[in-house]
């Protein structure tokens, strides 16, 4: 195994091209520009903005980007065909990433071309790009399933044609770190242009394979924010960058403090939510629940954290649940400036454990309202439900009229929605809109008794514009009433924080 990593690695971001190939994701021109601006601030070296030959919309996106003038180079993907390359040139791309399949599967089934024909297309494409004075990166698609002698022959030929970088894609994510390391070692012995890698995550090895390639001397990682991409996705930019910085002491131009913000923007625009346990950017990446861990964290955060959350723009969170220890409760009470005597503290401790044992989510605001109730502080309900009326049916637009008392003033509002609960939520959002911008993050409904008159239990998590979260729970025979009560209870908890 070779260990010969460079001191600096270039980051080629393909969120807006391979990432857009995530099933179900399409990104408009305006959205691409918003993400590209974030990537540029983040410090990526190259932004693969899209595939200009795919559509006039893609070409417009490149023209827009050229007008803005990013620090990063703006790359367009092109098959090794003059018509694709022309589209990229006409769209003002300043970097072209051209590719052709080289593995037996691609040669025989997809392209139906001989090795010689493929080699010829690769060389012609690179020469054509270079004749236009544009940076050329060339990929042998499915490199990891291509015979090594032929792979080296193609890479040598494009090197002669003056390619600027070669890229080694593990197109279907089938390699393993040791094989990737061997492959890059062999290519590095023969080829004198910077080597890039592009790893897919079909076996969850994309980041490990990328790092193995860098250990063998690869100088660039192609990757995506949040690991988006075709099928199981590509290697995740945030995981590669933080591993390079922290585990290898290798530099990149990335400003790691912007990683979480960039990840959130990409997640919001693409609609692909991150699992809470996603490394680096997931909601739980710096959350601690177990009493033993929290005790360690409060004494010295390095006991249970591999890196400081601030380094990636994240926040440490102490989560309450059945594993919570007294230390965590004391820390939270101190944070909220709540003083409890010994009996009150014990009662609160028991309550937190009981909620955790019952599998209930306890947000910080829930904790605060339970602690203040135990302390004897009267619960403030700034919003009270005075009445609801809903209209729904087969050929009727579901409509809800909600009447609320907000800080002593009575207000009414009607809204329509996809159903009566949706219409009621919109009416509440509009009624409380002047004091808080409420969104529903979770909504669950469960029938807790049988029959058509079953009691329905509704559980919600609401968030405000500052991402404060509060749960609400309510039970009623009428699901609309239970939903509204749960929403209002969560909104009252959020408003408590503002006092
Ligand atoms: O996965 C792949 O092989 C690709 C190429 C276009 C580089 O995305
Ligand atoms: Zn790919």
Describe the protein's architecture and organization.
The protein has three domains: 261 residues, TIM Barrel, CATH 3.20.20.70; 89 residues, no CATH class; 116 residues, Double Stranded RNA Binding Domain. The strands form four sheets. Strands 1-2-3-4-5-6-7-8 form an eight-stranded parallel β-barrel, surrounded by nine helices. Helix 1 packs antiparallel against helix 10. The protein has 499 residues and is α/β, with parallel strands linked by helices. Bound molecules: 3-methyl-2-oxobutanoic acid and zinc ion. Zinc ion binds next to loops.
Secondary structure elements and pairings:
Layout (H helix, E strand, L loop, with lengths): L9 E4 L15 H14 L3 E5 L5 H13 L4 E7 L2 H9 L4 E7 L2 H8 L3 H17 L3 E7 L6 H13 L4 E6 L6 H14 L4 E5 L6 H10 L4 E4 L13 H12 L10 H12 L16 E2 L2 H9 L17 E2 L7 H10 L6 H16 L6 H12 L7 E9 L7 E8 L2 E8 L3 H13 L6 E9 L8 E8 L5 E8 L2 H18 L3
Parallel strand pairs: 1-2, 1-8, 2-3, 3-4, 4-5, 5-6, 6-7, 7-8, 9-10
Antiparallel strand pairs: 11-12, 12-13, 14-15, 15-16
Helix pairs in contact: 1-2, 1-10, 5-6, 6-7, 7-8, 11-12, 13-14, 15-16
Key phrases:
three-stranded antiparallel beta sheet; binds zinc ion; single chain; elongated; binds 3-methyl-2-oxobutanoic acid; TIM Barrel; Double Stranded RNA Binding Domain; 499 residues; alpha/beta
């Amino acid at each position: 195994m070779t260990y010969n990593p460079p001191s600096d690695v270039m980051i080629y971001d393909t969120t807006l091209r391979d990432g857009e190939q995530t099933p179900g994701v399409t990104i408009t021109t305006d959205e691409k520009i918003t993400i590209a601006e974030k990537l540029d601030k983040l410090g990526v070296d190259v932004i693969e903005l899209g595939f200009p030959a795919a559509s006039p919309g893609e070409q417009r996106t490149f023209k827009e980007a050229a007008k803005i003038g990013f620090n990063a180079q703006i790359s367009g993907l092109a098959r090794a065909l003059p018509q694709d390359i022309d589209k990229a040139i006409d769209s003002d791309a300043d970097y072209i990433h051209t590719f052709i399949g080289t593995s037996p599967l691609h040669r025989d089934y997809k392209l139906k071309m001989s090795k010689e024909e493929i080699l010829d297309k690769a060389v012609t494409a690179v020469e054509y790009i270079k004749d236009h004075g544009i940076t050329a990166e060339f990929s042998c698609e499915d490199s990891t399933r291509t015979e090594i002698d032929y792979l080296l022959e193609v890479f040598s030929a494009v090197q002669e044609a003056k390619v600027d970088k070669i890229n080694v894609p593990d197109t279907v994510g089938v390699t393993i770190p040791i094989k990737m390391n061997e492959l890059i070692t062999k290519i590095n012995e023969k080829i004198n242009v910077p080597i890039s890698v592009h790893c897919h995550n079909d076996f969850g090895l994309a980041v490990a394979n990328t790092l193995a390639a860098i250990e063998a001397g690869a100088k660039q990682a192609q990757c995506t924010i949040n690991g988006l991409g075709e099928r199981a996705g590509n290697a995740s930019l945030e995981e590669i960058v933080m591993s390079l910085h922290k585990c290898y002491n290798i530099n990149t131009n990335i400003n790691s403090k912007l990683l979480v913000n960039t990840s959130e923007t990409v997640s919001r625009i693409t609609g692909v939510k991150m699992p809470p346990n996603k490394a680096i950017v997931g909601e739980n990446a710096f959350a601690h629940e177990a009493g033993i861990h929290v005790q360690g964290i409060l004494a010295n955060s390095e006991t249970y954290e591999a890196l400081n959350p601030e380094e990636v723009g994240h926040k440490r969170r102490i989560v309450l649940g059945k594993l919570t220890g007294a230390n965590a409760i004391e820390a939270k009470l101190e944070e909220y400036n709540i003083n409890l005597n010994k009996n009150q503290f014990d009662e609160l401790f028991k309550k937190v454990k009981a909620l955790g044992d019952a599998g209930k989510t306890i947000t910080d605001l829930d904790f605060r309202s339970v602690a203040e109730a135990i302390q004897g502080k009267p619960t403030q309900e700034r919003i009270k439900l005075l009445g609801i009326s809903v209209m729904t049916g087969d050929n009727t637009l579901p409509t809800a009229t909600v009447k609320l008392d907000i800080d002593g003033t009575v207000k009414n509002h009607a809204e329509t929605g996809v159903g009566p609960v949706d219409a009621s939520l919109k009416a509440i959002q509009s009624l409380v809109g002047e004091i808080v911008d409420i969104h529903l993050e979770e909504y669950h409904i469960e029938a807790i008794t049988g029959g058509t008159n079953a009691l329905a239990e509704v559980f919600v998590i609401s968030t405000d514009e500052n991402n404060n979260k509060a749960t609400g729970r309510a039970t009623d025979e009428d699901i609309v009433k239970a939903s509204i009560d749960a929403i209002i209870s969560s909104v009252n908890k959020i408003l408590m924080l503002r006092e």
